[in-house]
TrEMBL record:
Name this polypeptide is given: LysR family transcriptional regulator
Family: Belongs to the LysR transcriptional regulatory family.
Domain HTH lysR-type: from-to ranges: 2-59
Organism: Solirubrobacter pauli
UniProt keyword annotations, A-Z: DNA-binding, Transcription, Transcription regulation
A single Gene Ontology CC term: cytosol
InterPro entries in alphabetical order: HTH-type_LysR_regulators, LysR_HTH_N, LysR_subst-bd, WH-like_DNA-bd_sf, WH_DNA-bd_sf
Length: 302
């Protein structure tokens, strides 16, 4: 089996044209490089380098070996990098900010996925709206942010400089009805079907801002809605037959008994969920966390 250190010495001498230059590049002494070359020539049983007026050059055997040596060294470096990435996943921490409903299913399952993949770094997470979450990533006080915008919305605020966003999934809005509601037997329900219903909505922020705009566009006045930002309370109000609502699918991944979830007929409504990081930050733990979020997002999107 050829020694990688000796192959590295051969490549360095061939690239730089002299033993002294190769020694400087490798951080070795000239005698050490010469020793590696001598041992390599002894192993293969033929000369690999020949001296000339300007230094050294490979022989025919040296040229043949160099082709394979470069490939072997590239693969060895790639293997070392891969193992380094795995070692990096044993320690450290990733800080994640996200909108609250991401913690119903997406974030917990992503962290569980990391544990199943034997990643041992710590993931610290907390809730934050889009603006503060992006500002924290830009400032370097958090590593990743999960944010959303209405699907197809071209007017969402631009990302701060130096940040990149990766789309994870489309999160559709579902109609939430009491199990005994007259429309509960349908597979799809339109906003027009709900024009005369009482609504329960959150305050006019987050996904509820998207929902309120859609209601107004459909000619439904949401000003008389029951208002609560508590998702369980909203489902309880719906289950009691007091109102209907729209909810992102992520938020009702574990709907309470007494309610049914139905697809929203045209016009369909959804929000686009992105994971945002600093463009220059490609640490293994950040890549692994982003990959886990992507995997679970794909599962949830079905």
């Amino acid at each position: 089996m050829l020694d990688l250190r000796r192959l590295e010495a051969l490549v360095a001498v061939a690239d730089h044209g002299s033993v002294s230059a190769a020694a400087t590049t490798l951080g070795l002494s000239q005698p050490a490089v010469s020793h590696h070359l001598a041992r390599l020539e002894a192993e293969v049983g033929m000369p690999l380098l020949v001296r000339h007026a300007r230094g050294v050059r490979p022989t025919a055997a040296g040229d043949a070996l160099l082709v394979h040596a470069r490939g072997l060294l590239d693969r060895a470096r790639a293997a070392d990098d891969a193992l380094g990435d795995l070692r990096a996943l044993r320690t450290g921490r990733v800080d994640l900010l996200a909108f609250p409903t991401a913690f119903v299913d997406l974030v917990p399952r992503a962290i569980q996925h990391l544990r199943e993949e034997d990643a041992r770094f710590d993931v610290r997470f907390g809730p934050a709206a889009r603006g503060p979450a992006l500002a924290a990533v830009a400032a370097g006080t958090t590593d990743l942010a999960l944010v959303f915008a209405a699907a197809g919305d071209t007017e969402s605020p631009r990302l701060p400089a130096g940040l990149v966003a990766e789309p994870l999934m489309e999160d559709p809005m579902l109609v939430v009805l009491a199990r005994e509601h007259p429309l509960a037997g349908r597979a799809q329900v339109s906003l027009a079907d709900l024009a005369d219903e009482r609504w329960v909505l959150g305050t006019a922020r987050g996904p509820d801002a998207i929902i309120r705009r859609a209601l107004v566009a459909a000619g439904i006045d949401p000003s008389d809605a029951i208002v609560t930002d508590d998702l369980l309370a909203a489902q309880g109000i719906v289950a009691a037959g007091l109102a209907v609502t729209l909810s992102p699918a992520l938020a009702v991944a574990h709907a309470r008994p007494g309610v049914v979830l139905r697809a929203l007929a045209e016009p369909q409504l959804s929000r686009r969920i992105d994971v945002v990081r600093r463009a220059a930050d490609t640490a293994p733990a950040i890549r692994a966390t982003t990959g886990a979020l992507r995997t679970i997002a794909e599962e949830l999107a079905g």
